[in-house]
Amino acid sequence: MSYDRAITVFSPDGHLIQVEYALEAVKKGTTAVGVKGKEVLVLGVEKKSTAKLQDPRTVRKIVQIDDHICMTFAGLTADSRILINKARFECQSYKYYYEDPIGIEYITRYIAKTQQKYTQSVGVRPFGVSTLIVGYDSKGFPKLYQTDPSGNFSSWKASCIGRSEKPVKEFLEKNYVDEMDEEQTVRLTIQSLVEVVESGEKNIDIAIMRKNKPIEFLGRTRIAEIVKEFEEEKKRKEEED
Amino acid sequence: MDSLVGFVGKNYVIMAGDTNAGRSIMRLKDDFDKLVPIDSHKILAKSGEIGDGNQFCNLIIRNVSLYRIRNETELTTKSVAHYTRRQLATAIRKNPYSVNLLLGGYDKKDQKGSLYYLDYLGSSKKINYGAQGYAALFVGSILDRFWKEDLDFEDGLELMKKCLREVEKRLIIGTRCFLIKMINSDGISVVEKVMINSEKKNEIEEEN
């Protein structure tokens, strides 16, 4: 008897197979990285290479959920749209009732709760999406949260989701330092992506979230500059060796 | 009891509301802001039942924000007016909101200001100048006479004060304090909080 037909069924060894398959879908998605600095949050995404005739601007992976909260995802884009929509609605709904802007942990919990609901409902499948959510908490500290199709969520200093999760996470674990300033955080994010993204910096999007400021997307030229600096540094190191 | 006045000028919209909040004969609050910002370039001036005004304006603000976050662009004043009217019209035969509104907004695309008159029955009309509440009785004729298209800001402010002076003079209910706000390309700004005191002309001599 196959235990992966309906998601409501546990397998004999205690797995929800459909949820694990959803995680596989996430592993097929393009990479997304989030890094927390001392007073800044940076999101980086690998953009899927667009076909020649396709307008690249319509493919946006870093989205705003509210004025002070941003997120990105890895996995099935269409599934993510549903989650993003629900999250956006919840942010406004919270403000409608409480007049305060929603907390970053609150909205993460909400998104995670939604993802979990779909692992325990009739006739639906889990979302094939993991998300990275960034924002500042009520005390003003930067926060990075990750959710996955099972409905788990946790806070991270730096994290990666998508197809290059392993190598990028290893890179981050080796090179992450606490309390980085904005410049260092941006560099670390770009560096972690450049290694794994095919066709280089043209397919990278970087977004910076500063406290009480709207999100800023780093310009193409600036990304190219930073990547060039890495390559020159690499060359120098190789020449020295 | 509420007095709201608004008109369109050259690249701006000026709106004023009295700052009284009351219940029957009692004044509960004298610093009540009835000109609620919906987004960076639109004001919804509310009059009528205070609770309904709060709830309804909150609803409109949240839905306009949701649109902005979802679509990464702001709604035009015309669209907000239509949306607001739709909410009032569907509510009137179920759970009416007792609010009359003036919606003023500046659209960057047209570089023009616009003003809409909305009432609790679900009427909506684009107007150049208008008022809600008792002020409408007095202010209508003044604006009919003195409003011109493309008034610049100083003239507009003078005209607004003329209207408010008339309201203060003729309304038996003491409405002395008004808050004037202006919307232009830079957004919403509070122009003045005016206290109007019409001169006392006749003094009663005490008989000894």
Structural class of chain B: alpha+beta
Structural category of chain A:
alpha+beta
Largest interface: A-B, 12 and 9 residues
Regions with little confidence, pLDDT below 50 for 5+ residues of chain A: none
Describe it for me?
The complex is a heterodimer of chains A (about 240) and B (about 210). Chain A is an alpha+beta fold. Helix content of chain A is about 40%, strand content about 20%. In chain A, strand 6 and strand 7 form a beta hairpin. Chain B has about 210 residues and is an alpha+beta fold. Chain B has a 5-stranded antiparallel sheet, with helices on one face. Chain B has a 5-stranded antiparallel sheet with strand order 5-6-7-8-9, covered by helices on one side. In chain B, strands 3-4 form a two-stranded antiparallel sheet. In chain B, helix 3 runs antiparallel to helix 4 (about 155-170). The mean pLDDT of chain B is about 90. Classes of the chains: A alpha+beta (about 240), B alpha+beta (about 210). At the A-B interface, strand 3 and helix 2 of A face helix 1 of B.
Give a quick summary of the entry:
Chain A: This is Proteasome subunit alpha type. The complex is a heterodimer of chains A (241) and B (208). Chain A is α+β, with helices and mostly antiparallel strands and 241 residues long.
Tag the structure with descriptive keywords.
heterodimer, A: 241 residues, alpha+beta, five-stranded antiparallel beta sheet, 10 strands, B: 208 residues, 12 strands, globular, Proteasome subunit beta (chain B), proteasome (chain B)
Layout of strands and helices, then pairs:
The complex is a heterodimer of chains A (241) and B (208).
Chain A lengths: L16 H12 L3 E5 L3 E7 L16 E4 L2 E7 L1 H22 L5 H14 L11 E8 L5 E6 L5 E4 L1 E4 L3 H11 L6 H15 L7 E7 L5 E2 L2 H21 L1
Antiparallel strand pairs in A: 1-2, 1-8, 2-9, 3-4, 4-5, 5-6, 6-7, 9-10
Chain B lengths: L2 E7 L2 E7 L2 E3 L2 E4 L5 E5 L2 E7 L1 H22 L5 H16 L6 E9 L4 E7 L5 E4 L1 E5 L1 H12 L6 H18 L6 E8 L2 E9 L13
Antiparallel strand pairs in B: 1-2, 1-10, 2-11, 3-4, 5-6, 6-7, 7-8, 8-9, 11-12
Helix pairs in contact in B: 3-4
